[in-house]
Design brief:
- By secondary structure, the chain is of the alpha/beta class.
- It has two domains: about 300 residues, Thiolase/Chalcone synthase (Peroxisomal Thiolase, Chain A, domain 1, 3-Layer(aba) Sandwich); about 35 residues.
- The chain has a four-stranded mixed beta sheet, with helices on both faces.
- Helix 4 links the parallel strand 3 and strand 4.
- The protein is globular and about 65 Å long.
- The N and C termini lie far apart (about 50 Å).
- The structure holds coenzyme A.
Length: about 350
C-alpha cells in the first residue's frame, strides 16, 4: 500500500467548512484522511503500491503479464493510468488497462485478473486500486469533502498448480438507474469541459448521501452471503470480512445483517476515510502487516459504490511467499526510467528521419 504522508484531521476540515469533529466521527467513524502532495498523483501512488506488492511477492516486473488499475480519479481520461504504471515499473511484457467501477472496482479488477489466470491466458497480474479523490472533491461542500481520502493498494496474483488459493468465488452487480446518486458529471461526452461546466461545479463529486447510505446497507450483507454460497462454503468458514471502508455505520449494519461480530471485520476507515477502490487493498495490507491475516484464511471482500455497483468475493489468503528468492526492484525502476527516456528520444529521431508532422498520407 502507499498513502501520502500529509494527514488532514476532522479539526482541519472544520476550518474549511461548517462541520465538527464530533459530527464527522459520529456519522462516519472517520477521524482523519491522507491527502496527496502536489507531486503525488494516482499513477505515482499506484506505482509505489505496486513496487511494494512485487517485492512482497518476489516477482520481477518483466514477469508481470497484466496490470489493472482500478480508479475513479485517473491520471488522465486517457492514456490509462495502468500504462503509466507499466512504464514506471519496467513491466515490459505486460498489457495494461484501467477499470472503472468506482468503489467496487478493486473487487471487479481482482475477479478479472483471476479469471484471466484461470484460463491460462496470463500467469501473473498486478491489480491496483488507486485514488487521489482530493483532486475531485469540492472542498466547499461539507456533504462530500469530509468523506474521502487518497491512497493506493496492490495485490499480486499468480498462477499456481499446487495451491488452492486466491479468488474462490465472486459476485459483480450493477444498477445504472442509480447513476446520478454518486457521480462526477463533467469532463465526459455528456458534459465536455467548458468554462460553464467549471462554474457549475460539474468536475466535482456529486452525491446524494442518504440514498447511497440506504443502498449500501441493503447490499453489503446480501452480496457477502452470495459470494460465500457460490464458493460452496458456510459463513462460519470465513475468518475475516474486509469491507469497503466508506462509513463505520455501514460496516456495522453489514455485521448486524450477517450476524457476525465486529471483531471479524477489518476496519481502518477512521485513519484513511473513504479511499474508494483503494480501501479494500489498503485494509488488507494493514491487516496482513498486523498478522491478522494468516495463510489459508478465507476472507470475504465486499463493497459498493457509484454506478451503482456492488460486488463481493471469497478470497483465500496465500501470502507471504517465504520460499521464493527475493528480488531487487531498484535496478528495474532505474532501467525503466532510462528506457522510457530512450524510447521518447528514439520516437523523436524516427520523426526527424521520416519527416516530423507528416501524416500517413504525406
Ligand atoms: N457537518 C455538519 N452537518 C452536516 C454535514 C457536515 N459535514 N453534512 C451534512 N450535514 C447536515 C445536513 O445539511 C443536514 O442538515 P439539515 O437537516 O439541516 O438539512 C443534516 O446534517 C443531516 O444530513 P444527512 O445527509 O441526512 O446526514 P446523514 O446522517 O445521512 O449523514 C452522510 C450524511 C454523508 C455521512 C451519510 O449519508 C453517508 O455516509 N452516506 C453514504 C455516503 C457514502 O458512503 N458515499 C460513498 C459511497 S462509495
Amino acid at each position: 500500500m502507499a498513502v501520502p504522508e500529509k494527514v488532514l484531521t476532522n479539526a482541519d476540515i472544520a476550518q474549511l467548512v461548517d462541520t465538527s469533529d464530533e459530527w464527522i466521527r459520529s456519522r462516519t467513524g472517520i477521524e482523519q484522511r491522507h491527502i496527496a502532495a502536489k507531486n503525488q498523483t494516482t499513477a505515482s501512488l499506484a506505482t509505489d503500491a505496486a513496487v511494494k506488492a512485487l517485492r512482497m511477492a518476489k516477482l520481477r516486473p518483466d514477469e508481470v503479464d497484466l496490470i489493472i488499475v482500478s480508479t475513479s480519479s485517473p491520471e488522465h481520461i486517457f492514456p490509462a493510468t495502468a500504462s503509466l504504471v507499466q512504464d514506471r515499473l519496467g513491466a515490459e511484457n505486460a498489457g495494461a488497462f484501467d477499470l472503472s467501477a468506482a468503489c467496487s472496482g478493486f473487487i471487479y479488477a481482482l475477479n478479472m485478473a483471476s479469471q484471466a489466470i484461470r484460463t491460462g491466458a496470463v500467469k501473473s497480474a498486478v491489480v491496483i486500486g488507486a485514488e487521489t479523490l482530493s483532486r475531485i472533491v469540492d472542498w466547499n461542500d461539507r456533504n462530500t469533502c469530509i468523506l474521502f481520502g487518497d491512497g493506493a493498494g496492490a495485490f499480486v496474483l499468480q498462477a499456481d498448480e499446487t495451491e488452492v488459493g486466491g479468488v474462490l468465488s465472486s459476485v459483480m452487480r450493477s444498477d445504472g438507474s442509480g447513476g446520478s446518486l454518486l457521480s462526477l458529471p463533467g469532463g465526459g461526452s455528456a458534459h465536455p469541459a467548458t468554462s460553464q461546466t467549471v462554474l457549475d461545479g460539474l468536475h466535482f463529486i456529486h452525491m446524494n448521501g442518504r440514498e447511497v447510505y440506504r443502498f449500501a446497507t441493503r447490499v453489503m450483507a446480501a452480496a457477502s452471503e452470495e459470494a460465500v454460497e457460490k464458493a460452496g462454503m458456510e459463513m462460519d468458514q470465513i475468518q475475516w470480512i474486509i469491507p469497503h471502508q466508506a462509513n463505520l455505520r455501514i460496516i456495522e449494519a453489514a455485521a448486524r445483517g450477517l450476524k457476525m461480530p465486529m471483531e471479524q471485520f477489518i476496519v481502518n476507515v477512521n485513519k484513511y476515510g473513504n479511499t474508494s477502490t483503494a480501501s479494500i487493498p489498503i485494509a488488507a495490507v494493514e491487516a496482513a502487516e498486523k498478522g491478522q491475516l494468516q495463510r489459508g484464511d478465507n476472507i470475504v471482500i465486499v463493497g459498493f459504490g457509484a454506478g451503482l455497483t456492488w460486488g463481493s468475493a471469497v478470497v483465500r489468503w496465500t501470502g507471504p511467499f517465504e520460499d521464493a528468492p527475493s528480488v531487487r526492484l531498484t535496478p528495474f525502476r532505474r532501467a525503466a526510467r532510462v528506457r522510457s527516456v530512450l524510447r521518447r528520444i528514439w520516437r523523436f529521431i524516427e520523426g526527424v528521419i521520416w519527416g516530423r508532422g507528416k501524416g500517413p498520407s504525406a
